[in-house]
Design brief:
Distance between the termini: 43 Å
Low-confidence stretches: 163-168, 516-543
Strand content: under 5%
Mean pLDDT: 83
Bound molecules: beta-D-fructofuranose
Number of helices: 23
Structural class: mainly alpha
Shape: globular
Length: 543
Amino acid sequence: MYQASNVYFICGFAAIGGALFGFDISSLSGTLGTQAYKRYFSNPVSYTQGGITASMPAGSLLGSLVSSFLADKYSRKVALQISCVLWIIGSILMTASQNVPMLCIGRVVCGFSVGIASAIVPVYQSEIAPKEIRGRVVSLQQWAITWGILIQYFIQFGAAHGTGGGPSDPDQPTAAFRIPWGIQMVPAVILFVGLFFFPYSPRWLASKDRWEEALQVLANLHGKGNTRHPKVLAQYQEIEDALKFEREQAVSSFKALIEPRMLKRVALGMSIQMWSQLCGMNIMMYYIVYIMEGAQIASPLATASIQYVINVVMTLPAILFLDKWGRRPSLIYGSFGMMTWLFISGALQQYYGQPNTEETRTPDNSDITWIVINNRPVSSAIVSCSYLFVATFATTWGPVSWTYPAEIFPSKIRAKAVSLSTSANWFWNMVLAFAVPPLLWNISYKMYYIFAAFNGAAFIHMALMAPETKGFTLEEMDEVFNSGRPAWKKFDRGSRLEELEREIERGNVKVSVPPGGRPVAGDPEQGVELKKVATPPAGNPIS
Ligand SMILES: OC[C@H]1O[C@](O)(CO)[C@@H](O)[C@@H]1O
């Protein structure tokens, strides 16, 4: 059967899983302010709305936790296909929902699906990509998320504002806002079918001792199908060495995640995902409409949509340059920038805002708006801060929160560890989805200060604990993390992969790749000797 072999194409296509994530994020924001939605779902008050919003990340939390079982047992590919099927079921439930509980059940099922996809897409991408473009291709997941958010928002916006009894006609609201929940099934069907034509991850194949297939996939991806290409052999050898080492060390169970030598990385992966939520991005994604309303912006839904465009456009620099800039500066400068925008926005609201009361409220404000700003330049400044915040997140934390956790763990526990770090994303996503409306209502601008402080904490944490990972292969990460250097000190030993490749080219190292079965170093039957380079490719990864 034909199998795709272009890394960009494969990783871009797999990123449709990210688009599903995006659809879910904005599956409510275009509808929230409409009469039709309020009418069908009994005009949800802040707590109910928080609950409806949070039902999806709650499902995703569960999905991300089980994702590694599926990905390790049935492969990354099949796990993604399972996620597509669940997405379709959840979307049907949402589209047909007649009340809040049914809507929530649909959102939980969709969330479950997205939880699996969000953990497994980056694992699959990082295991397919060569190290030089790994940051870029895993960033495609985030780019797809931002596209998903944008597309879904606009489809919703159009559907919710259709003629013939739309939000402008409170007596006769249409159910057109359901259309996007139906349309969102299409990409899942495409992804499901497309995945049949995609290769298994070579690292997963190797972990199942399907060595010949692993070699062939590596050859297709990196050597134009030639299994004897030095580049291919070097990667193959590196994977084999690392896996052998992991097996010797029994690095495969959940227990391995809490061993002291691994715990540091697990904590870092989980914290990065936690900070990606506690930075406050989803206040903008989920509730920007309320911010716009409070700032007295005419047509808040349309103005809010600008942030979704900014989110898509500003993820592009990361896709282009992340492998050049590195992950560490993105994390550090990103949190500093976001802290600044939130602080300014909070201060403007503190000094120029009035509480939302009968007197201050205008017909444009819903009773859920927490603060009212009656000063045009200040309103514009607040909205600008929101846009700058989104732009900063999009170029930095958005993509890096996926690339970093997907690249720092050894093969045998990668899916488990990424599932755990992704679950941290969903846990905090859920908490915030639920907590933000009541928080905005009860402490208004102070909430901005709290989130600014979270960004300050992330800044310090990353500066102290997150080493640079660009330019190293997945198999070299053990050394990056166990070099004993502080995170801010550059670990500038060149990648060993190139060294190994050169040695293979010169004929100093021979890699035995027997047809069928696992290659054995120096296997006499193969008549090929495997000489190691001075420092073994997997080094002493974990000690
Ligand atoms: O682009 C914004 C989106 O990105 C995420 O942080 C995932 O990386 C989502 O939680 C958020 O809604």
